[in-house]
Write a structure and sequence with these properties.
The structure holds two protein chains of two kinds.
Chain A lengths: L1 H7 L2 H5 L5 H13 L1 H18 L8 H47 L3 H5 L5 H32 L1
Chain B lengths: L2 H21 L3 H23 L2 H18 L9 H20 L14 H4 L7 H6 L3 H10 L3 H12 L4 H8 L3 H25 L4
Helix pairs in contact in B: 2-3, 2-4, 2-8, 3-4, 4-9, 7-10, 8-10, 9-10
The chains are: A mainly alpha, B mainly alpha.
Chain lengths: 153, 201
């Protein structure tokens, strides 16, 4: 009787094909000798098959298209954020290079080095100003290009 | 002869490479995934929240969340399980805000879950399901509490295995089994009651 109660409580899961191998063997063994459980399993199996055959509601096509567009925009926005970070790093790097090259070139015995007299504050300002303007111009162009891409999407 | 082999392993390889491309933020592969899972994800969300407009909102939110977290996605993990887990969390958050619901909440009829675990009249189900079963079963499923509806749809409609359901719901496998057992019992009771009340087609 105890076995009947235990197995009976497993019949729902048997119909759902969710039994482990040991439970499966136990149910199979009991079913061979219990007609009531066989009849009940038949009912649960019927219910399980009715659930498997439920009609699938279709996602509206406009929802899929809209989602794809939103995702494409979100990805490009994420990428543009990454690009801005990379650009900021590049600007910092270019400043560093500017500083290092100016010091290095000024130590060489060439006409350019003589012109780039680091002791002159005017040369310092001019050299840094030119590199700064060139970098800002390049960054501005890239950001504008990114924004236009975003609008198109 | 090699066709089944290629079919199985070719599909697996496609999924794996797609998962790799997903984690690198490939827009093309994301568009393909949205298309592939459109009906299944929508159905799952619709079963959970019942309202089509809410299911549509959650559908978009799910994919947005996928995009936000795709760089942290582990390609060795099942994409399907991950996707449905994201959808599950969003739907639960939404329902908690709108209509707090738990397993202990009484059903619309006033019965509690413990009432539902008792077996209903045996034999009635066969007669019941021999009629227009799709509409009556769907109607009965919609009357189940959220936790039961969800496990039913994951097992029978999404055809997920026990491990996958446990991953999506973040529950131990034993709890998933118990929940499914109780859900089926509850469903049978609702169907029997509908038949007795003459509300079945």
């Amino acid at each position: 009787m105890k076995e009947h109660i235990v197995v009976n409580s497993l019949l729902t899961l048997a119909a759902a094909s969710m039994l482990g191998p040991a439970e499966h063997r136990r149910v199979e063994k009991h079913l061979r000798e219990c007609e009531a459980c066989r009849a009940e399993l038949k009912e649960w199996t019927l219910l399980a098959s009715a659930l498997r055959e439920l009609p699938t509601p279709q996602a509206p096509p406009r929802l899929v298209l809209q989602t794809q567009r939103i995702l494409a925009y979100a990805i490009s926005f994420q990428e543009s954020q990454v690009s801005r970070f990379v650009l900021a790093l590049l600007v910092l790097f270019s400043w560093l290079v500017t500083f290092v090259t100016l010091r290095f070139v000024s130590l060489l015995d060439i006409p350019l080095a003589r012109w780039l007299d680091v002791s002159s504050i005017t040369v310092w300002i001019a050299y840094i100003g030119v590199t700064w303007l060139a970098t800002a111009f390049a960054v501005g162009l890239l950001v504008k290009h990114r924004q236009q891409e975003g609008k198109i999407i | 002869m090699d066709q089944p082999f290629e079919l199985i392993f070719g599909t697996l390889m496609t999924f794996e490479s797609e998962a790799m491309r997903l984690s690198s933020g490939d827009t093309e592969v994301i568009a393909q995934l949205v298309e592939r899972y459109q009906h299944r994800l929508y159905r799952y969300l619709l079963r959970l929240v019942s309202r089509p407009s809410t299911a549509e909102d959650l559908f978009q939110q799910t994919w947005m969340r996928v995009i936000e977290r795709m760089r942290h996605y582990d390609p060795r993990r099942s994409f399907e399980g991950w996707l449905f887990a994201v959808a599950h969390n969003l739907a639960i958050d939404h329902l908690r805000r709108r209509q707090p619901e738990s397993l202990d909440e009484p059903l619309p009829s006033g019965e509690t879950q413990s009432d539902l675990t008792r077996s209903s009249n045996p034999g009635a189900l066969e007669l019941l399901l021999s009629k227009e079963r799709a509409s009556c079963v769907l109607d009965a499923v919609s009357e189940l509490p959220l936790a039961f509806r969800e496990v039913i749809t994951l097992r029978f409609e999404e055809e997920m295995k026990l491990e996958e359901i446990a991953t999506v719901l973040a529950l131990p496998m034993g709890t998933v089994k118990t929940r499914l057992h109780r859900a089926m019992k509850a469903l049978r009771l609702i169907l029997s009651r509908k038949m007795q009340n003459g509300t079945m087609p």
